[in-house]
Amino acid sequence: MSQAKVDRRKEEKRNRERIQKKEKRSLFLTKVCCGSVILAIIGWIGFSSYERATDRSPGSGVAFEVNTAALDDFLNNMQETAE
User: Fold this and answer.
1) Is pLDDT of 82 > 90?
2) Contact between residue 83 and residue 77 where contact means Cβ atoms under 8 Å apart
3) Distance (Å, rounded) from C-alpha 74 to C-alpha 69?
4) What is the DSSP secondary structure assignment for residue 36, as one 8-state letter?
5) pTM of the model
6) Cβ(61)–Cβ(55) under 8 Å?
7) Which of 30, 56, 61, 74 is the most exposed place for a label (fewest CB within 10 A)?
């Protein structure tokens, strides 16, 4: 091995702990950033779907009407026959 290579190896060995701490810090920050972005996206999706589900303004959603005349007639006939 050349002397330059040996010196480089010694320098790397001397700074190994600092390099590993730097790599761990970088990995941790990457995980925190990705996690916060994912949480923000999930929160936004949840908030948007909640807003759509609870929107009570006129014209939002579908309005429908139920005709219960036949059911009322049936129940009245049942009461008349039971008496």
Assistant:
1) no
2) no
3) 9
4) H
5) 0.52
6) yes
7) 56
Amino acid at site 71:
L
C-alpha 35/C-alpha 15 separation (Å) is 30
Amino acid at position 4, single letter: A
Helices marked H in 1-83 — which ranges?
Answer: 3-14, 16-53, 69-82
Q: Which two tokens stand for residue 35?
A: 């996690």
The CA distance from 14 to 23, in Å, is 16
User: What pLDDT was estimated at residue 64?
Assistant: 74
d(CA 18, CA 30): 18
The amino acid at residue 30 is: T
